[in-house]
From TrEMBL:
Keywords: Ligase. PANTHER family: PHOSPHOESTERASE SAOUHSC_00951-RELATED (PTHR40037:SF1), PHOSPHOESTERASE YJCG-RELATED (PTHR40037). The keyword Ligase applies. This is 2'-5' RNA ligase. GO terms for molecular function: ligase activity. SUPFAM superfamilies: LigT-like. It holds the Pfam family 2_5_RNA_ligase2. It comes from the Bacteria. InterPro entries: 2H_phosphoesterase_YjcG-like (IPR050580), Cyclic_Pdiesterase (IPR009097).
Length: 192
């Protein structure tokens, strides 16, 4: 067997969840995308800003929560601005751009904890350089071009307060059709 998958390993996705208003708006934009341009990747995913993604033994989850609690409770809540539609032509992604500074600060803290305390490699616990909220990833260049030409002229500005970080999990599997992430735990940030 070329690849062996350990059933005791979970995939984790650490995210910031936007306000209910932004979540509802993103759902509307995803529905609009689907109606105008057809099926696409991430069209059914809930609005979020990804901070990092990694695999970890299931038995280490309580230690992960403890470490995240210890470090993230030291951070104060913060405000994030969402400012318009943007696109990554290379991978066909249409997204809402978010302010970077605070998100990258939290990402760096998380990846430091993951690398130092859990020995997760740099390649797995990467810091994303362009935090964003995904609308959809197009299936082909034509779909991307058409969708980007539509969304690029829509103005969207909003702000929301971040008071917690959400950690999602799913079982690591060899299947190409992966299951949805489920809530593992949340960490409340320190008071503003």
């Amino acid at each position: 067997m070329l690849f062996e998958f350990d059933s005791d390993i979970n995939e984790y996705l650490v995210v910031v969840s936007p306000s209910e208003t932004i979540t509802n708006n993103v759902s509307f934009f995803k529905k609009l995308y689907h109606e105008r341009f057809g099926r696409a990747h991430y069209i059914n995913s809930k609005a979020h800003i990804s901070l990092c993604h990694f695999d970890l033994l299931s038995s280490r989850e309580s230690a992960l929560k403890q470490e995240f609690d210890m470090y993230l409770n030291q951070l104060k809540g913060f405000e994030i601005g969402v400012s318009g539609f943007h696109g990554f032509q290379k991978n066909g992604l249409v997204y809402l751009k978010t302010e970077k500074e605070e998100i990258i600060r939290v990402q760096r803290l998380l990846t430091t904890v993951l690398r130092q305390r859990f020995h997760i490699s740099k390649q797995i616990a990467q810091v994303l350089r362009e935090p964003h909220i995904t609308i959809a990833r197009s299936n082909n260049d034509k779909q991307y071009t058409n969708s980007w030409n539509y969304f690029k002229d829509i103005t969207y500005e909003h702000k929301f307060d971040v008071d917690r970080i959400t950690v999602l999990r799913r079982k690591r599997t060899a299947a190409t059709q992966k299951s949805s992430y489920k809530l593992a735990f949340e960490v409340v940030l320190g008071q503003c």
